[in-house]
Amino acid sequence: MKILEYLQNYDGKPLRFMEVCGTHTAEIHRNGIPALLPPSIELVSGPGCPVCVTVSAYIDRLIELGMDPKNCIVTFGDMLRVPGSSISLSEARAKGCSVRMVYSPMDALKLAKEDPEHVYIFAAVGFETTTPVYALLVQEALEQGVKNLRLLTSLKVMPPAIDWICAHNFPDAYSAGEISDPARGQIFRGNRESGRIHGFLAPGHVSVITGSRAFVPLAEKYGLPFVVAGFEGEEILAAIAALVKLQGQGRVLNMYPSAVTEEGNTAAQERVDRFFEPCDAAWRGIGVIADSGRKLRKEYEAFDAGSAELMEDTGGNPACRCAQVLMGRIRPRECPLFGKVCTPQTPQGACMVSTEGSCFSCWQSEGL
Q1: Nearest to 54 by CA among 302, 330, 313
Q2: Nearest to 260 by CA among 21, 93, 37
Q3: What is the pTM (predicted TM-score) of this model?
Q4: Tens digit of pLDDT per residue, the chain (368 long)?
Q5: Contact predicate 40/15, CB 8 Å
Q6: What is the largest CA-CA distance in the chain?
Q7: Is the dihedral of CA 83, 84, 87, 93 positive or negative?
Q8: 249 Cβ partners below 8 Å, 6+ apart?
Q9: Contact 131, 294 (CB under 8 A)
Q10: CA-CA distance, 62 to 125, in Å (whole number)?
């Protein structure tokens, strides 16, 4: 209660904090946290949903591979409805694309072992949290002699994307004046400092692997606070209060010590480094960011299904503003399609597909 009172009584300069974790986004909306904050403290979502930042060329490639009768695509359910340049995997499956939905990457290994006549291609999408599992999948395939398993990778690392956001700072995103916030029934008055971000809720799950120290260079470079937070409503509110108190300080504060250490999971880091190496990667709505991805090392390229050239992000509804939502430039409700042609039943962009997407979370918590 004291934390909530502190936040609601805040009367300093307007502050904008960004969360870059899909689970944080979902929990912020589920707990109604934006409505608890004063107009001078604003939360915006960043590119923290791995499905949401996957470019359309990746979906197109999965469909192309799945239409080959020799192949079968293996994927999690949230990838099925992500739009490609023209159709989704789910729509392609109705046209003959071979797709199997699973709950674990290891299911792909089992399928490949049981059916050596087909090549099983796993849609390996994720951040630092899931990459160690894909490394283990390759390791198990090697040890068990499974030769008909492939990965189509869209693996990304978070710090370079946050660096990009801080460096660009969105000078054209906002201007002085009154900006309506229908979710709160309030008016945000003043200047948003051209979209400036004043601090970050560091991604909790990613930090378990990377350690909190991964964000120290960014904090020091931009003079911004980073707070590693848990996922309960009270933990998120406490982290926001810490960001308010640390404004203007280039520090990293770990408020999730039960799961996150300074150095992270070194065993997982070593496994990833064994099988993967840094590469440039394309982010939906942002473009190509140097060294922001991970690809299979040359000695394991036999397991790659052709991931290297998947950099295009074209097609889809031209009015969809998922790109601006992913970069924190607009809220989901500011997209002209939100709640009209774009709903969870008829998603026009990836942000409305994934349960960790900003638009889906907004819809779930606020509806129309």
Answers
A1: 313
A2: 21
A3: 0.86
A4: 699 999 999 999 999 999 999 899 989 988 999 999 999 999 998 888 888 888 888 999 999 999 999 999 999 998 998 888 889 999 999 999 999 999 999 999 999 999 999 999 999 999 999 999 999 999 999 999 999 999 999 999 999 999 998 887 644 333 333 333 333 333 333 334 446 899 999 999 999 999 999 999 999 999 999 999 999 999 999 999 999 999 999 999 999 999 999 999 999 999 999 999 999 998 887 788 999 999 999 999 999 998 876 666 666 677 888 878 877 778 888 899 988 888 888 888 778 887 778 888 888 876 54
A5: yes
A6: 66
A7: negative
A8: 223, 225
A9: yes
A10: 12
Q: Which two tokens stand for residue 251?
A: 């520090």
CA distance 131 to 133: 5
User: Length of the chain in residues, anyone?
Assistant: 368
Residue with tokens 């960790």: 356
What b/e sequence results for 96-114 when a residue is b if at least 16 CB atoms lie within 10 Å of its CB, and e otherwise?
ebbbebbeebeebbebbee
Residue 334 to residues 93, 99, 148, 233, Cα–Cα distance (Å): 32, 34, 46, 25
- The set of residues, in sequence order, having a beta carbon less than 8 Å from that of 107 and lying 6+ positions away, is 74
Identity (one letter) of the amino acid at 324? Q
